[in-house]
Write a structure and sequence with these properties.
Distance between the termini: 53 Å
CATH superfamily of the largest domain: Glycoside hydrolase/deacetylase
CATH topology of the largest domain: TIM Barrel
Number of helices: 20
Number of strands: 30
């Protein structure tokens, strides 16, 4: 009696878990399972990092313990794909790896990342090659022969079309135009991933050997850095980078890029878009450091095309001094009537006024990373207060002088109502919630990483590093086109004195943005607009369920769903229909945009297209 009772309870428990995790009445047609060792909590910070990235990319990633994925009664999870992550899942048993193989061999899609499953439960590497080399499609983790040279740091390359397809913007990859014919649209040339200021960028990856039968996405002198190939009836996206580690230390580009590639290119999943109404664009961030900007600002006021567009994010160091107290080189917003008039003029045009550090530009930049933040913290308050007094508006966005953004500053900003800040980490990305040392910085404050042209981001840096006017113009136009085509937001920044020599370059660029805007495909955003939108987006609750050849999407919001937008690829779905609520469905190149109208509930149905 006791035995039968025990097995009955066990059966109920197993069936209950199966109903939640695997094929139930309404299986989740868009879910990505993140494999987690049984001895790790599903709420651990290393898991949260993946869930944050997925949320920002508009995807549903669900952590699942190994025993729930590979239990004896489970044959195939009701999920679009599976992620076997790095860092958190180095150890794995042979039976569990066999279950992963069965999943892919039976038609499943797997994203296999770096060192996942390279260690036995006892912490030992296998002889000769990684235990999942067959899934990866190439031999790696060659500790038996390479020892300490098994992992090497190298420059990373790929062809321009593939790198751009990963969501990596021009300038972050370089060259961004065909060296043989800069005016052509050819993307069949080799590029490298690059780093702001230094150019040279190297990433760690396992040395790989052997022929690779799939599509190589990225490579280095160590071999395959990323590739996609078939395995049985399924396929594997092998990502040979420690993307979890990189994101946890201010470089989240690769994790986001491959997560999006897996969802969008491999699986053709619907997703919640990262921009209002699904319309991409740029943030143009002005940095006003001192009174040296006043004359250039007066000239910029005569650039009609610049004034006619926007809104822009204009950040000011507001105090009377710059490098040392009493030098009288500051913008001096409290006493300089011209400075005050400029600020009021910008506010009238709809621009957002933000803080550029604290009161004295160079002084603050030099001391912000010091051992005693309390000594200069009052400068942040002085700057914010003075700008608010003149502009008549709350100041809620920020940029760091010289890019110096220690953790204490970010904490101060969020505690004082800021929602956005310019950032020189995570370059190439759009707005993101930053991580440092594995911990997320803040709850509702967003970092806005800069774009750069190879080594340069500000115009004076482009001049100093020898980039031609023609190349700068092509880069600016390529950036605008990238944001438009990928339906994302990126940041370009400048100092007024540095932009003046590029007047015609900028006016030509503004012709391009005006044309894209007139076509309804481009917008200028401020950091505040985007941060407020993204914080509202975090409150969207939505789910997807499959019924035969139909996919149902249900969404709710505590306040308003307006401007939230879902993307359905046309290769997989016919035109979605609105079942409940209000929304506009628009065909946009290779996808359908479902743009929510006013209301707190929305239900969409889309039919699968016959292959």
């Amino acid at each position: 009696m006791k035995i039968s009772s025990y097995f009955l309870r066990l059966f109920v428990l197993v069936v209950g878990i199966a109903g939640m995790v695997f094929a139930g009445e309404n299986p989740r047609g868009d879910r990505l399972l993140l494999l987690v060792p049984d001895d790790m909590a599903l709420t651990a910070p290393k898991i949260e990092l993946w869930l944050d990235a997925a949320s920002e990319e508009g995807l549903h990633v669900v952590p699942i313990h190994d025993s729930d994925f590979a239990g004896p009664l489970f044959e195939e999870p009701s999920a679009a794909g599976v992620i076997f992550p790095d860092l958190i899942h180095q150890k794995a048993s042979d039976p569990f790896l066999a279950a992963v193989r069965r999943y892919v061999d039976g038609g499943g899609k797997l994203m296999l990342v770096y060192d996942a499953g390279t260690l036995s439960p006892e912490g030992r590497y296998s002889l000769r090659r990684a235990r999942l080399s067959d899934l990866a499609g190439v031999d790696y983790a060659l500790y038996d022969t390479l020892k300490e040279k098994t992992i090497q740091w190298n420059k990373v390359s790929g062809d321009a079309a593939t790198v751009r397809g990963l969501g990596i913007p021009p300038g972050k990859y370089y060259p961004f135009q065909d060296p043989a014919n800069p005016n052509s649209k050819n993307e069949n040339f080799e590029v490298q991933l690059r780093r702001y200021k230094y150019g040279d960028l190297q990433y760690p990856s396992f040395v790989t050997t052997g022929a690779y039968s799939g599509k190589v996405l990225l490579h280095s002198d160590s071999g395959i850095c990323a590739g996609e190939h078939d395995y049985g009836k399924g396929s594997v996206l092998f990502v040979n980078f420690p993307v979890s580690y990189l994101k946890s230390n201010t470089d989240g580009l690769l994790l986001h890029a491959f997560l999006r590639y897996f969802a969008e290119r491999v699986l053709s999943l619907p997703y919640l878009m990262k921009v209002p109404d699904g319309t991409g664009g740029l943030v143009l961030n002005w940095h006003i450091d001192s009174n040296a900007a006043i004359r250039p600002l007066a000239e910029l006021d005569s650039w009609t095309a610049l004034q006619a567009q926007g809104p822009y994010s204009i950040h000011i160091t507001a105090g009377p001094d710059d490098t040392t107290p009493g030098d009288h080189q500051g913008f001096d917003i409290e006493h300089n009537h011209l400075s005050q008039e400029l600020v009021l003029h910008w506010v009238k045009l709809g621009n957002e006024i933000g803080s550029h550090g604290g009161w004295m530009h160079d002084y603050f930049a030099f001391h912000a990373d010091g051992s005693n933040p309390a000594e200069i913290e009052p400068l942040l308050e002085l700057n914010k207060h003075a700008l608010e007094q003149v502009s008549g508006k709350p100041v809620v966005e920020y940029s760091a002088p010289s890019g110096t953004q220690p953790e204490w500053v970010t904490q101060w900003l969020e505690a004082h109502g800021f929602v956005a800040y310019y950032y020189t980490g995570n370059t190439g990305m759009g707005p993101t919630q930053g991580y440092r040392d594995g911990v997320r910085e803040g709850h509702n404050i967003w970092s806005f990483p800069i774009l750069h042209l190879d080594r340069a981001a500000a115009f004076e840096e482009m001049k100093r590093n020898g980039y031609s006017d023609e190349e700068v113009e092509h880069w600016l136009e390529s950036v605008a086109e990238f944001a438009t085509e990928h339906r994302v937001v990126r940041v370009v920044y400048f100092h007024p004195p540095g932009i003046l020599p590029y007047k015609q370059v900028v006016l030509n660029w503004l012709d391009t943005t005006a044309r894209l805007k007139a076509e309804g495909r481009f917008r200028w955003y401020t950091m505040t607009q985007m941060a407020n939108f993204l914080n509202l987006r975090k409150q969207v609750q939505w789910k997807v369920s499959a019924e035969g050849k139909s996919l149902n999407l249900e969404a709710t919001h505590p306040e308003n769903l307006e401007h939230q937008t879902w993307w359905f690829p046309t290769e997989k779905f016919s035109k979605p229909s609105v079942v409940q609520g209000t929304a506009t469905v628009v065909r946009d190149d290779n996808g359908w945009k479902v743009i929510a109208g006013k209301g707190t509930k929305l239900q969409i149905r889309a039919e699968l297209v016959e292959p």
